[in-house]
Amino acid sequence: MATNRTNSKATNKPGGKSGKRNAAAERRAKIEEARRKERARDRRNRILTIAACMVVLAATVGGGWWLWASTDGDDPATPPAGEASEIEGVQTWDELGRNHVEGQVDYPMNPPAGGDHAQAWMNCDADVYETEIANENAVHSLEHGAVWVTYNDAAAEADIATLSERVSATSYTLMSPKPDQESPIVLTAWGNQLALDTADDPRVETFFNTFVQGAQTPEPGAACTGGLTE
């Protein structure tokens, strides 16, 4: 009788082999459930990523088509070649040479608005020259982001004084007489030029604000000192 009671207690003791098997099965089930949720989350993330990429691609393609359509040459809103849309009357030139050369250069516009030029630049740190300067040195100043103000004998003395005062107060500008130009006053930056009759034209302010060290500058930040002074 004593022996039978001992065996019965051993058989019903908690934590036996059967209990251990059940605990292990539960752990495996929990691990599998966690892995299943992780796989589902990964699938959702991949789907969201693909969808976002498709939206970006569609926007890029659509934007490129709109840009092509809006810049097509047949669009009447497209400004004619050779004229800037930001400032009325500004003439523009592209693909201007930038080689350093010796001697005189035959420029297609007067005053020149860019092209091959001399190795030395004219000082353009608010410099006002009383006599005519060489085109080739002035063009080098334009390459550095300067605005060049020129005038001929038709310009009024008061306008010359007004422009001289403005240039004298503005870095990256220079001014000189240009007797053979057609308009009384001309403002020139690299690839851009505006002909004027008077200095009180409101476009003077806009031209200076736009082109003094403006986006057109081939060599932004290049010096306007250390060049020629006469």
TrEMBL record:
Amino acid composition bias (Polar residues), ranges on this chain: 1-11
InterPro entries in UniProt: DUF3105
Transmembrane portions of the chain: 47-68
Residue stretches of biased makeup (Basic and acidic residues): 23-41
Region feature (Disordered): 1-41
Annotated Pfam families: DUF3105 (PF11303)
Domain of life: Bacteria
Keyword Membrane: yes
Keywords, sorted A to Z: Membrane, Transmembrane, Transmembrane helix
Name of the featured protein: DUF3105 domain-containing protein
Source species: Streptomyces millisiae
